[in-house]
Amino acid sequence: MSTSPIATDEGARAVAGPEAIASLRLQVLAAARYKLAIHLPTLPAAMFSSQDELAELRRIAISGRGAEIRLLLGDVAGALRTGHRLLDLAQRLPSALRIRTPVTDDESSETSASAWLLNDTGGYLFLPDAERREGRAALRDGPGLAPLLLQFEQIWERAAPATQLQPLGL
Fold it and tell me: Is the pTM of this model over 0.85?
């Protein structure tokens, strides 16, 4: 599998290894304009926590009226226990960065183990098994992104808001 960064005019490419995935994740974030859709079974400490990734997420979240970052997270409690920096950002920008938990009966085991990052310019990073650290990515591949976005939308509509993250109204 190729582990090199992809150029903006290239289609989907295979990707493997933590460094290549981190690089491509940052490229997909940087290519986004106003919208992101993220699906993760868990939120590891090394994912979406670097200064560069958080800066891109913040840029997208404050990019304008249509800004929207939606995160489907299977294990919100685990991310809270570790004090993940992305959750801090979500609590500071709740109108732009929304987190939901998939309904467990609803998601197939294949879907629940996968991870994906989708942007609004046709870019994506898809890992069929988030633990294996290999998958495919593209910066401009609308046809490759479409089925992932459709699946995300279906899960999002049935998912429950992550109420654990809402600040207490004291």
Answer: yes
pLDDT for 3-18, tens place per residue? Answer: 445 454 567 899 999 9
Residue 39 makes CB contacts below 8 A (sequence gap 6+) with 71, 72, 111, 114, 115, 116, 152, 155
Q: Which helix (H) or strand (E) holds 112?
A: helix 109-113
Instruction: Please report the DSSP string for 40-104 in residue order.
Output: ESS--TTSS-SHHHHHHHHHHHTS-TT-EEEEEES-HHHHHHHT-HHHHHHHHSTTTEEEEE--T
pLDDT category at 169 given cuts 50, 70, 90 is: very low
20-60 pLDDT, tens digit each: 999 999 999 999 999 999 999 999 988 999 999 999 999 99
Q: Which residues of 74-112 are buried (b: 16+ CB within 10 A; e: fewer)?
A: bebeebeeeebbbbebbeebeebbbbbbbeeeebeeebb
Helix or strand holding residue 115 (H, E)? strand 115-119
What's the length of the chain? 170
Distance CA 124, CA 39 (A): 11
Q: Distance between CA 166 and CA 146 in Å, rounded?
A: 31
